[in-house]
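Let's practice the habit of predicting before peeking. Look at the sequence and jot down your guess about where helices and strands might fall. Then scroll down.
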Amino acid sequence: MASLRLAFHLITISILIFFLLTISTPSTAAREEEDEHVFVRRIDRKLIGLKKKEKLSHFRFYWHDILSGRNPTAVQVVPPASNTSATLFGLIRMIDNPLTLSLEMKSSKMVGRCQGFYASASQQDLGFMMVMNFAFSTGKYNGSTITVLGRNAALNPVREMPVIGGSGLFRFARGYVEAKTLKLDILTGDATVEYNIYVMHY
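Done guessing? Here is the structure:
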């Protein structure tokens, strides 16, 4: 009889200790949830200026890629992996290209610059990976940027690349660009490309 009482008391004490530990020690899931709340929270979209409806805008300008002369705007930073590569595979050029309203750069107003780089990323055809910020310097868009990241199949008449974001008036931007080469100097590599940007923004 005494042994039964002792066993009963031991079981009761064990259950009580387990219950107390369960209450005082948060579960792993609870701790993870608390940690998550330390660095993320939901906010009202109006607090960051998303008060207006999303709109679609179309921009058109000319992108001047200048490799020649005393002041080139496209500079090679990594040469092709092989001198025999027909596609210049591995080539990387850093760019700070002027953006103008008309085809002729010298007689046109500059509205911004395209800064970033492009790299030859194809061994079979002439295909560049384009990483570009279109940084505007005029009007209400002064200081705002549109960011493009995509594949440029340079020999196609028209190439399409995605808009992946932006800053300033183009926060949360999305859309695409169409690029069309209008002038290309075979000897120097200088090129003028018409860019049409279709972008959704607030």
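How did you do? The domain at 53-199 is CATH 2.40.480.10 (AOC barrel-like).
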